[in-house]
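ARCHIVE CARD
SHELF: 3
SLOT: left
DATA:
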Amino acid sequence: MTTTEPTTHRGSCHCGAVRFSVEGQGSALGTAFGDAGVLACNCSMCGRAGSLMVFVVADRFTLDAGEAQLRDYQFGKGHIHHPFCSVCGIKPFAHGVDPESGATMYAVNLRCVDGSDAQVLLADANWYDGASL
């Protein structure tokens, strides 16, 4: 049963040094984050990392632990920050500014969210051709 009530989903990097919370609507990860749903991108970063992302505004994302362990990586035009855990190397989220609204957005890697099922998420993913940018 899926609910439309706000639900807090928790996640982390592999070693648990970096932990975060993200608010969605309902308990089903594939549909909890609005119309855009799950995004699978083939850019050089996401394609190699296998990220399955949802985008949320900054006030729906909280870094619960591990700020000191995060290192930032940027490539290309440097518009998106790709922080990763300096202990285990996993990148559980990215962030940047939406060029249309000017709002800070987080791209949360659903593979790093507790209880996620990659097979289910992939079945409903929207594929984005980031390699063509």
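SLOT: right
DATA:
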Amino acid sequence: MTSPKGGMFMWAELPEGLSSAKLFQMALQENVAFVPGNPFYTKEGDVRTLRLNYTNSDATMIEEGIKRLGKVITTYKGSIE
């Protein structure tokens, strides 16, 4: 678990076998967004990583967004198992 002490983003990693690009498309359907991490690598990157911005939302919005994202991750994991 990461506890940010500043900055604008948290870096997260999905479980093995999940793609943040695929998850991104699913998350948009739940009105929650993040930035897939792959474009931030100079060479081939890890498709499981993502960036979460927490600077323009209050605690209530962040909590709701994490709940929605958790629901999408659970659905995604269930669809590939």
